[in-house]
Amino acid sequence: MNILELQHAKKSFDGTEVLKDIDLHVAEGEVVSIIGPSGSGKSTLLRCCTFLETLDAGELSYEGNKVVTTVEGKAVYGNKKQQREAMECFGLVFQNFNLFPHYSVLKNITDAPIRVKKRPAEEVMREARELLAKMGLSDKEDAYPCQLSGGQQQRVSIARALALKPDILFFDEPTSALDPELTLEILKVIKELAKEKMTMVIVTHEMNFARDVSDRMIFMDQGVIVEETTPELLFRSENQRTREFLGQYHDLL
Amino acid sequence: MSIEMIIMQLGEGMLSTIWIFALTLLFSLPLGMLIAFGRMSSNFLLCNLMRIYISIMRGTPLMLQLLVVYFGPYYIFGISISSSYRAYAVIIAFVLNYAAYFAEIYRSGIASMPQGQYEAAKVLGYSRPQTFFKIILPQVIKRILPSITNEVITLVKDTSLAFSIAYAEMFTQAKALAASQKSMVPFIAAAVFYYIFNFVVAAVMEFFEKKMNYYQ
Ligand SMILES: Nc1ncnc2c1ncn2[C@@H]1O[C@H](COP(=O)(O)OP(=O)(O)OP(=O)(O)O)[C@@H](O)[C@H]1O
Ligand SMILES: [Mg+2]
Questions:
Q1: What is the number of H-type helices and E-type strands within chain B?
Q2: Which residue in chain A is spatially nearest to B129 when comparing CA positions?
Q3: 3-state SS assignment for residue A156
Q4: Which of A37, A61, A248, B19 has the fewest Cβ atoms within 10 Å of its own Cβ atom?
Q5: What is the pTM of this model?
């Protein structure tokens, strides 16, 4: 069964169509990258999948739970319970981390599982420390986000998302706010997760990384999916727009 | 009359002043939050009502508001005013006025919070009240504390406006004593009192600001 199924997604802002009939399917254990020029709608797509934007039309289900349907061309969202169930399926890592600055590293990670999911504090703490160890941040659990480098903050935010045990994790340009050296440490963490068969959808401008880590790549332009295939085939694409876009990265390749 | 006697006489006025100060904060701080919510509400009527309320409260003198609250029931409704109403009128007028100032401070503090904090909280499953009380409000308080301090210090001095409806707070007492004793001492004592009061208030607020300095 697909973890995420999105069909015929449409979204406009003030009359401008940003998503034009997008389909996105992600199977368990799959890593999908989304690439494309600035303004092509990549963030909007992730934000629609994570309920930060409402779809104008389309169908969305998580693990078979159909949370958005379309009636007479308009998106209809399921009830609160259905939405909550859907929201428990995914996590999202932001470009600029969005850690809670008034909480320590440990509390950033443990607060939602304890307060929202009502899980036993001790167990949550133990798991959080394991996550921090995995992120190489064991010595930082009492630090506050402002005392960490960007790369460390992003690792905490990944740990925070993982602490809720999502079945699928979305990343929206997780390294765009980081220096090149710090970028590498985040990419390493994501590769590690891919090895553990974490299901992930990653919006990124890091072409080499995307090619390495993805099972499938999606090239988006002007609100449509231009091409969707394996990294090997995408980088050998005959499509004009794909070639033009990837051409900008040729010196990187 | 000796200085001790004067201070003894002023003592009751000091207590009244401290009482006005404490009650005003106790009620106007939470009321300001409600007004700020109304002001930020998407309900057109409520939002504009609060906007007008805030603008009147900030745009007219507090002394005038005191007089309206005190004499209003008599002039408008013909209700005779009992002398015990005087204390209530002082608190009502101060609370209504200060709540408007606090509402604007809360509102600007809440508006200054980055959208990303709400989005992160939503994706992590926090309910709307949890997001507000656990994630947003603590950060807002840190941001607005300096503006709150300013208002609180102004309030210490504003308490003397209760004089305008002859409420027996510190300033009223000092003026009466000065007149009967033909002496400057009551005024000087009053000045020292206000100064020390403000000094203590500033120290307490600084303590809170320091306490919140554990993060940037
Ligand atoms: N909240 C919004 N209101 C109005 N327009 C928006 C909003 N969010 C996005 N847009 C517009 O939608 C289009 C797609 O934006 P989006 O952020 O999805 O692009 P993107 O592919 O993520 O670009 P980038 O690579 O720069 O992050 C842009 O033209 C943008 O201006
Ligand atoms: Mg984007």
A1: 9, 0
A2: A116
A3: helix
A4: A248
A5: 0.90
